[in-house]
Amino acid sequence: MEMPPKSPDGSEKSPQSKELITSRTGSTLCMSSRSESVWTSASRSKWDIYHKPVIVVSVGAAIFLFGTVITSLSCFLTKNENVYKMSGPAFLSLGLMLLVCGLVWIPIIRKKQKQRQKSQFLQRLKSFFFNR
């Protein structure tokens, strides 16, 4: 009669059973790693939802205005004119990039909020019909 090989730690479990245990724990790890805010139904304030894009838009607008001022200084000041001509457009483009990114981010968040509300509604509906 052939005996199954013993595992290195001396336990009698076969390697196949260990794979099943690790695969089960892997799925629970995946489930526990999900964000809690996605699964909780606690409503958040508008500021909690939109504070990051509002900050990005504000910083972008400020940098864009700073770039406008520096670019206009190159027209009025002849001393260090090359510095103003080089740095002004750089601040303009950086500010415009941040401004556009923040403005695009807001509709994306709105769409996610609508999808989350639909998902919560469908979960409640499903639990109502299947948990009877």
From TrEMBL:
<feature type="region of interest" description="Disordered">
    <location>
        <begin position="1"/>
        <end position="29"/>
    </location>
</feature>
<dbReference type="InterPro" id="IPR028068">
    <property type="entry name" value="PIRT"/>
</dbReference>
<keyword id="KW-1133">Transmembrane helix</keyword>
<feature type="transmembrane region" description="Helical">
    <location>
        <begin position="90"/>
        <end position="109"/>
    </location>
</feature>
<keyword id="KW-0472">Membrane</keyword>
<dbReference type="GO" id="GO:0005886">
    <property type="term" value="C:plasma membrane"/>
</dbReference>
<keyword id="KW-0812">Transmembrane</keyword>
<dbReference type="GO" id="GO:0044325">
    <property type="term" value="F:transmembrane transporter binding"/>
</dbReference>
<protein>
    <submittedName>
        <fullName>PIRT protein</fullName>
    </submittedName>
</protein>
<dbReference type="GO" id="GO:1902936">
    <property type="term" value="F:phosphatidylinositol bisphosphate binding"/>
</dbReference>
<feature type="transmembrane region" description="Helical">
    <location>
        <begin position="54"/>
        <end position="78"/>
    </location>
</feature>
<feature type="compositionally biased region" description="Polar residues">
    <location>
        <begin position="17"/>
        <end position="29"/>
    </location>
</feature>
<dbReference type="Pfam" id="PF15099">
    <property type="entry name" value="PIRT"/>
</dbReference>
